[in-house]
Amino acid sequence: MADPTVMVPLRHRLVQWVVSQAWLRAIYRLVPAALRNRVTGRLMAPPEPVYCRFENEDRWEQRRHAVPDAPVHFFGQADPAWAGHGVNVFAYLRGQFGLAECARLYSRALLGARYPAALVDVDINLPHGWNDRSLDAYISDAAPHRVHLVFINPDFLDAALDQIGKARLEGGYIIACWFWELENIPSTWLPALQQVDEVLVASRYVGEAFARVTDKPILCVPLPLSDVGDSGLQREDFGIASGDFVFLTSFDFNSYVHRKNPFAAIQAFQQAFPAERKGVQLLIKTSNGYRRPERLQLLLDATSGDPRIVVRDQVLDRADVQALQRCADVYVSLHHAEGFGLGLAECMAQGKPVIGTGWSGNMEFMDAKNSALVDYTLVPVMEGEYAHHEGQRWAAADVVDAARWMRRLADEPQLALAMGERARESVLQTLSPERAARALIARIEQIHQQRGLISTPSTVPPSRQEGSN
Fold first, then answer.
1. Where would one find coiled-coil regions in this protein (predicted)?
2. 7-12 LR contacts (CB < 8 Å, sep 24+)
């Protein structure tokens, strides 16, 4: 039975019901955006149980370092050949979840190259946090370009297009950036392919899945990593003992706990380190557990009895996430499947050794030299473990192999240091913003040239397109 302290509040269920009604959504959109966001933010404020939150957060505000409001690293120069060209980015630009962060990463790469990019925020009230303001200086309602990058997965595409306004997209070229974690694309997603001209994917694994169901162009551009700033919080702020060797794993309950598979990480940790072994910790950082109270309770039950395993369920600012990753020694992801595996990539960029299942989208940037790849067996996806499970399979990580890697990295500091250095050098090259921007711009420019698309006069202030930091 779910713990009553993590049940979904009535006000959350009320907001979710209102958003599910088409006629109420139409009325809701008439409310000014500022008022809409303020009211929704208060109603949807997460009431995570105190025992699942970081214990010292009441002093974080005084201990944080200032980070840039709009962290964009400018590395390119505007090309005169781009005159009259550009791209609109429609995305959940203020969302605090995976697809939203991916949209911001691609956007930063385009802005950093000084390519004409107009950023338009989409908010259809998905059950997530919406407080990322890092790109607010670049967001407006202007969409002057004729090529559109749309970061909305197929299951919410119609609702998003209604909000964007299909007339704004008419006559242009739509590239949809979609993520999926399994080998076969759901049949319910196929109609969405008829509404777009091309699909952008972050890994060849996802690209191969879409290639099985469409002959439309598929552009693969691995996610570009960008340093969005570190809040400066230290181990003591997160309740981590200074001398402990800490394994970190993280996920969003909205992304399905069984896919992220923290239970395998728990089993591997306990196999690697018998109860009498002190000075090691497994920190499981989650978010949105209050929206999935029965799943959160399942995780808490799996960790009970071992004080070395700590669960913290809380939505953090991106700069605090980066600080937490810095405070860990090793990042672990014994996932069943990943479309990309951003947490792994972010920690590798910080020079952390990572342990990950050697299958699916993370193989875009992980190999046997730069990470600890865990053996696996492909198994069927069972009902209730993930959406559209029928006929699907994914990888079951070898817990014994994962435990072996945990022991080695904890007991062999030189191995951990060397692996972390190789990881950083590798991903900073493979997942660089410059590399991603070149690939995106080359394709967008090719579309402009082939189709003769010309932007309308932009209303975006020049300061939003240019500058340096």
1. none
2. 7/290, 7/293, 8/290, 8/291, 8/293, 9/47, 9/290, 11/43, 11/44, 12/43, 12/44, 12/127, 12/291
- For the record, the structure tokens of 419 come out as 């692996």
Fold type of domain 80-224+433-460: Rossmann fold (3.40.50)
CB 162 within 8 A of CB 372: no
Q: Is 46 exposed, middle or buried (0-12, 13-18, 19+ CB in 10 A)?
A: middle
Q: Do 73 and 433 form a contact (C-beta atoms < 8 A)?
A: yes
**308, 281 in Cβ contact below 8 A?**
yes
Between 18 and 85, residue with greater pLDDT: 85
DSSP 9: P
pTM beyond 0.85: the answer is yes
Residue recorded with tokens 């990480």: 265
Q: Could you give the residue range(s) of every CATH 3.40.50.11930 domain in the chain? A: 80-224+433-460
Residue with tokens 């070395």: 308
Among 116-130, 240-254, 304-318, 364-378, which stretch is predicted with the lowest mean pLDDT?
Answer: 116-130
Supply 149's token pair: 């990058």
Helices within 171-256 (DSSP H only): 190-193, 204-211, 235-238
Helices (runs of H) and strands (runs of E) counted in the chain: 18, 14
> Which residues are bridge partners to 333 per DSSP?
356
Tokens read off for 138 = 């670049």
* Alpha-carbon span 280 to 243, nearest angstrom: 9
Rounded distance between C-alpha atoms, residue 184 and residue 276, angstroms: 44
Is the Cβ–Cβ distance between 400 and 271 less than 8 Å?
Answer: yes
Six token digits for residue 119:
């950023």
Residue type, 52: C
Mean pLDDT of 35-39: 58
What does the pLDDT look like over 320-353, one tens digit per residue? 999 999 999 999 999 999 999 999 999 999 999 9
Report residue 37's pLDDT band, with 50, 70 and 90 as the boundaries: low
Cβ contact 259:181 at 8 Å: yes
Every domain range in the chain assigned CATH 3.40.50.2000: 237-430
How many angstroms separate the CA atoms of 147 and 169, rounded? Answer: 8
CB atoms within 10 A of CB 462: 8
